[in-house]
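Troubleshooting log. The previous structure file for this entry was overwritten by mistake, so regenerating from the original sequence record. Sequence copied from the archived sheet and checked twice against the printout by T.R.
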Amino acid sequence: MLQLYSILALDIARDREREARHDQLVDLAHTDADSGRNGLRRGLATGLAVVSRGSAAAVRRLDDCVADDLTEALVAGR
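Regenerated output below.
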């Protein structure tokens, strides 16, 4: 009878070890998937920042041109 309990205890221990390994693999897979998403988000954020900075530079140039045109119109109107 003692051998039966020993065998059952070892079987339960193996099952728990197998479940623990499975949980570790699942956690590892989720970590890898999250890092992939973070990389994608970082890339999109960088691309958006580049577009935003380019737009801001274009607007500054246009503002300078408009300011020059307004100054010339005011001087010509005198």
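The chain has a mean pLDDT of 82. Archived copy saved in two places this time.
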